[in-house]
Amino acid sequence: MLKIICPKCHGNGYLGGSRDTDTQTDCDYCNNQGEVEITEESVNYHRKHDRETSGDGSCRKVLD
Fold it and tell me: How far is 31 from 54, CA to CA, in rounded Å?
């Protein structure tokens, strides 16, 4: 089973600042694991996130 780093929490397993634990929340996308199985849904989520943050579609170039 192949996995990729969670595109929502970037492998941390949580969302929010690392210094302020009061603002941290669990990552519901990867269930706090920091990685997700490679599925069509996870690839599409990764592509969408990549385009929103970098705009160059680099994730798509690697996966296609």
Answer: 25
pTM: 0.60
Contact 1, 37 (CB under 8 A): yes
**Domain containing 53: what range?**
3-63
Q: Is 11 helix (H, G, I), strand (E, B) or coil?
A: coil
Residue with tokens 């929010």: 16
Length of the chain, in residues: 64
How many domains are there within the chain? Answer: 1
Cβ atoms of residues 42 and 50 within 8 Å: no
Which pLDDT tens digit goes with each residue over 3-59?
Answer: 989 888 889 899 887 677 788 899 999 999 999 998 888 777 767 766 655 555 444
